[in-house]
Structure formats: structure tokens, C-alpha cells
Design brief:
With 80 residues, the chain is mainly α. It contains four helices and no strands.
Length: 80
């Protein structure tokens, strides 16, 4: 997992979900974060797309099950 991407994703999660005591891990998912609902998921995707200058396919969004898969998807889309 790319540390730079991970740190940016952590910051975005903290901004959207107001995380205090939760440290994001690869397997962190919507069940682990109480306010990770459909509205906040939409906000998350929009902010990630803007931050990383990428676009997620709607089918792809549905397939992403946890933070690790999300970061892996971002890594595939961006060019270093």
C-alpha cells in the first residue's frame, strides 16, 4: 500500500467521518464506522475523485468492500 495515498485517504476519511479513535486499516469497512452511510459514501467518492484527479465507475464503487480495496483502486488509476 502506497503510504502517501494511505495518508491522504486517512485525512479525507477523518474530514468526512470525523474519526477520532478509529485508525484506518486495510480491512476497515462501512460496518466499522457508524456514520458511513450512503450520503457520506457519495461525499467520500466525490472528494477522492477530486483529490486524486480520478473517476470511479459506478460498478467499481459497488465492488469496493474496504479501505484496502479502495486504496488499491486509487493506485491503479493514478500515475506517479
Amino acid at each position: 500500500m502506497n503510504k502517501k495515498i494511505y495518508l491522504k485517504v486517512c485525512k479525507i476519511f477523518d474530514d468526512i467521518f470525523n474519526l477520532k479513535k478509529i485508525k484506518l486499516k486495510k480491512l476497515t469497512n462501512a460496518n466499522d464506522i457508524s456514520n458511513w452511510d450512503s450520503i457520506n459514501n457519495l461525499k467520500l467518492i466525490i472528494v477522492l475523485e477530486k483529490e486524486f484527479k480520478i473517476k470511479f465507475d459506478p460498478d467499481e464503487i459497488v465492488e469496493i468492500k474496504n479501505v484496502g480495496e479502495l486504496i488499491k483502486s486509487i493506485e491503479k488509476k493514478i500515475k506517479f
